[in-house]
Amino acid sequence: MTAAVSPASVRDLRLDFFRGLALFSIFIDHLPNNFFARFTIQTFAMNDAAEIFILISGYAAGMIYGRALDRQPALPATARIYHRAWQLYVAHIFLFMLYMATVAHAVSVLNTSLYADEFHAANFLNEPDVAVIMALTLRFQPVFMNILPLYIVLLLFFPFALIGMRRWPLALFGLSFALWLAIQFNSTLNLPAYPGANHRWFFNPLAWQALFFLSAWFGWRSTKGGVPWLAKKWLLWLAIAVAVTGLVLRVNWTIHTIYDPFPALFPQTLWPWTSKSDLSPLRFANVLALAYIVARLVPPQSAFLAGRFARPFVMCGRHSLHVFCLGILLSMVGHLIVTELYGGVALQAAVSAGGVAIMVALAALMDWFAAATGKRKTGEVKGGS
Q1: What does the alpha-carbon distance between residue 212 and residue 150 come to, in Å, rounded to a whole number?
Q2: Cα–Cα distance between 271 and 250 in angstroms, integer?
Q3: Separation of alpha carbons 338 and 34, rounded Å
Q4: Is 39 strand, coil or helix?
Q5: Residue 100: strand, helix, or coil
Q6: CA 166 to chain centre
Q7: Cα–Cα distance between 255 and 55 in angstroms, integer?
Q8: What is the enclosing helix (H) or strand (E) of 318?
Q9: How far is CA 314 from the centre of its chain?
Q10: Model-level pTM?
Q11: Taking the chain (385 residues) in consecutive chunks of 10 residues, what is each chunk's mean pLDDT?
Q12: Total H helices, total E strands in the chain
């Protein structure tokens, strides 16, 4: 969401850094009753890592595939998008099978069906034939396994949205936001999921498309000189006001959950408008405000982003698909370890640090391999990676 475009030959480290931060937050937040989840994104904003992940993915998709559509006919550009969607689909199905194998092994070794229910995997063990078909159609989404299906579906409709935002932007975004607004008043408008006739997707694609397509438009516009009106100073102050309000509310609510006598600000009034599944207005506005502040105040190649401290985040963000899949499996294993050993803060710290270290090690290995084979990309961010 930059007001000015950076050269195509220079990789925007902000995208990698904050995508890496989102990946670490997702892993830490997935660990049960994790003390250190109080220090992730969700504690300091009205949104969490999921919104950041989808926003950055949309921005990168708009930047890369928008540029491709500018340079080649619609059919080859669309084929590139669907090729990426296919890669994500294959990764999701492979991850699903590893996920289910891990759950089945845990149930067998520990001689308990608790984890089959806890991870929403019981139907796979009871009727694997039906469950596999539902997984192949993205309708079966166990715990932790719902972000990639959302991303895949958004990419399937992205070629049409990309053409629309180039030719009829007002009509496209009018329809997009009208659909998002309809979901806020009727959350039953959603895709069917498995199991059960009334089960729906956790991340409602009909709502989340608004964030993805809007960020994609900003990504595409960044390749054409940016959006001039985004440089208005009052917009920055408005974004800061929204972000600070979200910070105060979330920190206040977190303190209240830890120490009940501490008064919570407007919980009954605002809580209905914080739905993650339907991308509530508070979450939507907060993530846009944070993205705008970063775009205005943090240069794409700032010294901090190129420094040693930021390097693990940048590396993981650069290889986000592989690191994300590994992080989901580590979340499961970490969940089992913490639960079985009745882990306190020390064990939670060890599992959190160990998981993050493994994710960073994978990213470093992939960086090394890319450099050794001459395939390391120092230019533009790969769309949706």
Answers
A1: 10
A2: 11
A3: 9
A4: helix
A5: helix
A6: 25
A7: 28
A8: helix 311-318
A9: 16
A10: 0.92
A11: 46 94 97 94 94 97 93 92 97 96 91 88 90 95 95 97 93 97 94 90 97 96 86 94 96 90 88 91 97 94 92 96 97 94 92 98 95 65 40
A12: 16, 0
